[in-house]
Amino acid sequence: xxxxxxxxxxxxxxxxxxxxxxxxxxxxxxxxxxxxxxxxxxxxxxxxxxxxxxxxxxxxxxxxxxxxxxxxxxxxxxxxxxxxxxxxxxxxxxxxxxxxxxxxxxxxxxxxxxxxxxxxxxxxxxxxxxxxxxxxxxxxxxxxxxxxxxxxxxxxxxxxxxxxxxxxxxxxxxxxxxxxxxxxxxxxxxxxxxxxxxxxxxxxxxxxxxxxxxxxxxxxxxxxxxxxxxxxxxxxxxxxxxxxxxxxxxxxxxxxxxxxxxxxxxxxxxxxxxxxxxxxxxxxxxxxxxxxxxxxxxxxxxxxxxxxxxxxxxxxxxxxxxxxxxxxxxxxxxxxxxxxxxxxxxxxxxxxxxxxxxxxxxxxxxxxxxxxxxxxxxxxxxxxxxxxxxxxxxxxxxxxxxxxxxxxxxxxxxxxxxxxxxxxxxxxxxxxxxxxxxxxxxxxxxxxxxxxxxxxxxxxxxxxxxxxxxxxxxxxxxxxxxxxxxxxxxxxxxxxxxxxxxxxxxxxxxxxxxxxxxxxxxxxxxxxxxxxxxxxxxxxxxxxxxxxxxxxxxxxxxxxxxxxxxxxxxxxxxxxxxxxxxxxxxxxxxxxxxxxxxxxxxxxxxxxxxxxxxxxxxxxxxxxxxxxxxxxxxxxxxxxxxxxxxxxxxxxxxx
Length: 655
What we know:
- The protein has 16 helices and 26 strands.
- By secondary structure, it is of the alpha+beta class.
């Protein structure tokens, strides 16, 4: 029996914002607790950790483009869109690498480097979709015209417009620039995604540009291998760029090209030429995989160390003809050992990475235009799981015993931090997070016996963006939520299946500011309660690892009926403090004894409950930690504090 569905309107549970904030706070606090236990007292976060978008010179486009659709109608978004109009390069139509930063020389021209021009075009199209102001569409189309200008007759796209005779005139794949243009041309040619408003003539021109660009990739491919970061605009041969970027096979850029072409070839099985090119590149990636080593920081340096258990690794560059890992310095010298180059370059460039991680998992495409076989998986309760998304199919699987610590995606390291007790131990579908990019149905699940299927969907999709995937019609929405280690909270929808029946797992509907869904199954007769299991702290030393799991009971009735008008307040964040009501003089909940009650107290209390011997608390802090009124520090104290911070209770029960 699945949990009773709550009252809902339009298929969405009302007043679930508060439920989400509670779960987010609990997941974040408990996750932070584990982190805090591993960081020595007094240790400071590095500048690298604190600087998220240093490479984005003036506008954080990657942050903007993750926001939900409605945000692009906000005053903040309109201000940015107006800036796009202001800083558009006159006579060219594109944008400089730093839009509002004064540049001279080659960088004063329109470029697709560092996500320039392609980001502004998408931003303007989304702002137009929300505001219907023609000036934004017109500005975006001038940007598209610039992309058309940047395409050579052979189909390749230059890095910068109007920079002949320099490496900026080369056809560039660097930092995904070429693929970003391909994605725009693909969407525009089909009038989908951000480009539903374009005219038929623009869609037609985009289709022509796309076909020329794909053919150029096939023509540029290095024999028996992949692609260089940039290719000569006339000969199409591998070309150098900066002094330490020599002509070579480049894995970081080739991985993105392969991913795009693989999906395109799958959608166009008649293009056996693309399938052959992709298969060649996949085999080459498999051939040059490096095992048994890690590239790690050592003081202020970086070194290669031997580690038999290390994940596969790829050099960024491989020498043409020999496939030896290739390294260079600012003098363009050739080296085959990263230790031989200067420390400045060794530590200041990505010489190794996991770029081929997903490429080598791709099934080879048929080269005779026959249909591709779809991946199939099975379990105890799932007789067959057919994955329609063949690009990411290798990252799907059926896994046993869902629980705290379970990895939910095959291509991400996110793990469960909190789940309802009735889902604990369930068989589950470990999906691919990147399948969120696919517009069609993702998979079909067939029951081996009578089961309840739980679709576990990113709450932001439903609540923030107002999107309810049509395939969930007829499913019941649970009152429970599930949390994972990147603090995302999931809604749970359930559906009963008889033995032999199947259900379609459809599209995630968007890849903007969300992760993909996953699923779990359990016998239909499984007993259900509204008990939440949460991960608290993981203390790791050189000799032992201790993991403490806290089980708390939060009934649906409590979480809904105790909510008052305070539900409309914003979520409690790490720097939010909550003043006491009648218990103010007692400082209940002030575990760190600093005069306020906030999430830092929850983190410290979680460490204490988890048995972290390095957690220090004063005598008064120990008294304040008694949040439930019962003697001693227990998981119930932590639950009470978290519920108080999330405003699920107006005050502590301590008198």
